[in-house]
Amino acid sequence: MRARHLVVLPVLLLGGACTPAGDSTSDSATETDAVTPMEAASPLMQRAQTLFEIVPVEPPQLADNPVTPVKVELGKKLYFEPRLSQSWLISCNTCHNLGLGGVDLMETSIGHGWQAGPRNAPTVLNSVYNLAQFWDGRAADLMEQAQGPVQAAVEMSSTPERTVETLRSIPDYVSMFGEAFPDADPVTFQNMARAIEAFEATLVTPNSPFDLYLGGDGSALTDDEKTGLALFMDSGCTACHGGILLGGSSYQRFGTVRNPGVELLPPEDRGRFNVTGNPNDEFAFKVPVLRNVELTAPYFHTGKVWDLKEAVGVMGEAQLGKEFTEVERAQITAFLGSLTGVQPEVEYPVLPVHTADTPQPDPWVGLGARPH
Amino acid sequence: MRARHLVVLPVLLLGGACTPAGDSTSDSATETDAVTPMEAASPLMQRAQTLFEIVPVEPPQLADNPVTPVKVELGKKLYFEPRLSQSWLISCNTCHNLGLGGVDLMETSIGHGWQAGPRNAPTVLNSVYNLAQFWDGRAADLMEQAQGPVQAAVEMSSTPERTVETLRSIPDYVSMFGEAFPDADPVTFQNMARAIEAFEATLVTPNSPFDLYLGGDGSALTDDEKTGLALFMDSGCTACHGGILLGGSSYQRFGTVRNPGVELLPPEDRGRFNVTGNPNDEFAFKVPVLRNVELTAPYFHTGKVWDLKEAVGVMGEAQLGKEFTEVERAQITAFLGSLTGVQPEVEYPVLPVHTADTPQPDPWVGLGARPH
To answer: What's the whole-model pTM score?
Structure first.
């Protein structure tokens, strides 16, 4: 959909190299986009190649959780399975909607009983590459993360016991778990989470314009996007927003230079401090991923900023002490738009039939009187 | 998944016909299942062929709404589009979940603000063949129906104006509407409904075991299912539950013989009478479709019965004045299980990005104070 103009850059022949240095990331990009001799790596491209990594086309393998097709298929069903919630209304996909950049476009998510949760839902896309999960990193990986919302009173409001009872009551799930987990006891809460993790690991978005650029295609970015990229690197954004995800690899205090104010940083949410108890972690949060960021408004852990340009301005002031001009914000935002990759193709799963043994939905549990 | 035993029936050669009479429905079945010479139409099969029709493999065309691929693709996006709701949380698929037989498995649907609606959600699957839409038939067709939930305060709680403003603010939707509707003014509330109708018309479930049986494959039903089919026809169920859908073709008073009681037939919901004002229509409802009925619990317009065998018992008493035995209920239920067809394959749509002009979500509108 994005209009791209062929930009002819001054060709700087560096040691005769007409393609980027043979780094480990260039192979995946050349599958989809051949480097032409005219588009030798410019200094901008070379610098970017040292700070960022291409999103691999193939999803990664997981430590201690071999990704197999049957496990991914099971995990997909579970990801879309509202019967994992007490109400039978909420699934992983409710708040991490694969049609909407892996988020729900809410300030903070709305769950069981229409209750609002405490923080904005981070995207599931490429989340396998995060150093840990949740804004405060309290889950080491996606397998641990997947167990949280099922039990959270304001999200799916169920319990591990009820979840397992539900899954065991559905013969098709029992046989799928048996295939995916050749254990003595395949249908467990942990294996449910392992299957969801295996599916989520496949939710990567390769081949964004920026990935093509990193792979050596100088025409993959527009002039504005390149100016934005240069500004992004020159201003110090890459201190936190580098690597594969342009984020997701460290915890940083929100407001290192200037406090962004109580609306964006309410004093009652002390971030990673709640996990570690370390005063240095007060108001620190996992640095958000910038991959697909144009799809995942509203921004910050409070979800209070809808406009990406405005969010760029907030970051400049709060983290870098810089007042970006209107033009600079627009250029950085243009660059951020180049981070939207090819979204995963997912066939909507047909879910297995429950039985008389399946615990029935109770949409009103924990809400006191039926609210409406 | 269903275990099927080859049943050798007494072969009754009727006038030398080894295949069903050349009726208009047999062609679609023979595409997937050839009739072998041994499986000549039994009297049971012949009788069934006069009372029921095979679900065609190809979706039907619609009067005044040509079904085109681009319109279907647009309609699919709109079907899964939560931004048609005021909250950005509820889409058509929330209550008519294509992974769950086209329903939400709720007694009555839960919508905006976790409010419960007045009636059980009917399945969207094969709904194009209904004589009209909703339990009381108040919408003539799916195009009219699709306009209802978007506006209903307890469902999506939006307005036609807001919906059109939303769609017009999203450039990808504007271009898709332009392609789907080569009108002077393509992005309208009616065209939204037309696109959804076009997609919904594709949601048919052909090739159920019963369809294969109707197509001439005597081994497609088990003995129990055949006994159930015979009972179903002998008991008079087919007076209302015949045709393609085994229902959906007439309005009938619930409790023609015996009132099923206030839980199943609360006096405040007078059914079709609310539409026509005709006293003969008091407590009449559109006869529910039995296609895929094993997937669509709980049953009746109140959704008060979860067990299909129990629902069969209720129908026998209320509509026919018959007390089916436990064995008979099980046999009829076995037959009903043969009505589950091949579920539609749907690739989950990637939805277009909204813009600064898109009206933002308001999950709390109409709920008074923010409830939680």
So the answer is: 0.89
Note the pLDDT tens digit of each residue in B144-199. Answer: 999 999 999 999 999 999 999 999 999 999 999 999 999 899 999 999 999 999 99
Chain B residues within 8 A of A330 when measuring between CB atoms: none
Residues whose CB falls within 8 Å of the CB of residue A109, separated by 6 or more in sequence, listed in order:
A95, A116, A117, A120, A121, A155
Contact by Cβ (8 Å): A20, A45 = yes
Residue of A nearest to B115 (CA): A372
**Token couple for A1:** 């959909």
B134 vs B314: CA distance, rounded Å: 22
**Beta-ladder partners of A14:** A17
Residues from chain A contacting residue B83 (CB–CB below 8 Å): 105
**Chain A residues closer than 8 Å to B371 by CB:** 114, 371
Q: What is the largest CA-CA distance in chain A?
A: 75
Distance between CA atoms of residues A191 and A214, nearest Å: 37
B130-134 — which CB contacts under 8 Å span 24+ positions? B130/B245, B130/B248, B130/B249, B130/B286, B130/B289, B131/B248, B131/B249, B131/B250, B131/B286, B132/B286, B134/B286
Contact call for B99 and A347, based on CB within 8 A: no
Q: How far is A367 from chain B (nearest CA, A)?
A: 10
**Nearest-angstrom CA–CA distance, A47 and A230:** 9
Compute the distance between CA of residue A169 and CA of residue B26 in angstroms, rounded to an integer. 38
- Residues B239, B97 contacting (CB under 8 angstroms): no
Whole-angstrom Cα distance, residue B140 to residue B118? Answer: 20
Read out DSSP for B133-158? BSTT--BSSHHHHTHHHHH-TTTT--
What ipTM was predicted for this assembly?
0.89
How far apart (Å, rounded) are the C-alpha atoms in residues B173 and B187? 8
The residues of A annotated with a catalytic role in the active site are 155
In sequence order, the β-bridge partners of residue B62 are none
